[in-house]
Design a protein that fits this description.
Blueprint lengths: L12 E7 L2 E8 L9 E5 L19 H7 L3 E5 L17 H18 L6 E6 L1 H11 L6 E7 L21 H5 L9 H4 L9 H5 L4 H8 L7 E6 L9 H9 L7 E6 L12 H21 L36
Parallel strand pairs: 3-4, 3-5, 5-6, 6-7, 7-8
Antiparallel strand pairs: 1-2, 2-4
């Protein structure tokens, strides 16, 4: 069941976007007293909504308020099949359709709001797939770059272990050790947890193949982050080197690991650190746009990364995890 409507006391408001006739709800946070330097478009993962980026339990972890405080507009979009569009799309949309809807919604937004220097996609998990697919084809105005967490190209699980309506999404993989999340996180998460639309679930196993034709068409800087305790995706050195190599047209590719984090980085204790690193990457994109109009390709080979520590047993007496999935 869908949780209660997201409400925020710290300058975040809900708006509706027109995605070529499809209404999409979104959360909006704008910088005080002036035009934005850029617009950060936040795209949530499977089984959650836009509130993932505006943590209610600990507001200092909110991407929306942090981004606005640094002079950016932050728009967190409820993807097709979530919240306002759920009744219209009970089966959801496939990945390609979601990319088309996202591009249409952002054209609507930029027709009515100042976009500053351009748009910056910041996406999580399945939202990363949507962001890459949307960026691979024309239609996104003034795209500066893409920052993705919790989404790779090679699953660390077998196809039958992917989230389905029957296995509950294998919650431990989605969260990692519970000590990575502040107290109150799971009590407050009811407002951001959503059912995953069937069409979205049905496409999970196809992503490794789709990625191979999508990544080479992305022509903006890309940064990908894997949580230290990421369990859905392979993120060993060999996998990360191969991942970066697929972005043949991107002027810059950076692959990093976020220490002290599980799959749901933006809800954990490491959320602010991750968000600051993502917004620093946006600064790099802005600087590159200003100083080098047509940059030549620069590759960044992922450095040797430390081994991920084993997860610890679940503490006794911890509030049960909400039903959500990774993708």
């Amino acid at each position: 069941m869908t949780g209660p409507a997201h409400e925020s006391p710290h300058g975040v408001r809900r708006i509706t976007l027109d995605a070529a006739g499809l209404p999409l709800s979104a959360l909006l946070s704008e910088p005080p007293g002036g035009s934005p330097r850029a617009v950060v478009i936040a795209v949530h993962g499977g089984g959650m909504n836009a509130g993932y980026f505006d943590c209610r339990a600990h507001p200092e972890q909110s991407l929306l308020t942090l981004g606005a405080s640094l002079g950016h507009t932050v728009l967190a979009v409820d993807r097709p099949g979530y919240r306002h569009s759920a009744a219209r799309l009970p089966e959801g949309q496939g990945l390609a359709e979601q990319a088309v809807s996202l591009r249409a919604a952002l054209r609507d937004f930029t027709s009515r709001h100042d976009a500053g220097a351009g748009l910056f996609l910041l996406a999580h998990s399945y939202g990363g797939k949507v962001a890459l697919t949307a960026a691979a084809d024309p239609g996104l105005p003034h795209l500066l770059g893409i920052d993705i967490s919790g989404c790779g190209h090679l699953y660390a699980v077998e196809p039958h272990e992917l989230p389905t309506a029957h296995n509950g999404g294998q919650l431990r993989r989605s969260w990692g050790p519970l000590r990575l999340y502040p107290s109150g996180t799971f009590r407050e998460s009811g407002s951001i947890v959503e059912p995953v639309p069937p069409r979205e679930r049905a496409e999970l196993a196809r992503w490794p193949l789709l990625f191979r034709s999508t990544a080479p068409r992305v022509r903006v800087p890309v940064r990908l982050t894997f949580a230290e305790h990421e369990s859905w995706w392979r993120h060993d050195d060999e996998a990360l080197t191969d991942l970066a190599a697929h972005f043949t047209a991107a002027p810059r590719v950076s692959v990093e690991r976020q220490p002290g984090a599980g799959h749901n980085i933006s809800l954990g204790r490491a959320a602010r650190a991750y968000h600051l690193r993502a917004l620093a990457f946006l600064e790099d994109c802005l600087a590159a746009r200003q100083t080098t109009p047509a940059p030549t390709a620069v590759r960044e080979t992922p450095p040797a990364l430390p081994a991920v520590r084993e997860t610890t047993p679940t503490p006794q007496g911890v509030h049960p995890l909400p039903t959500t999935v990774a993708s």
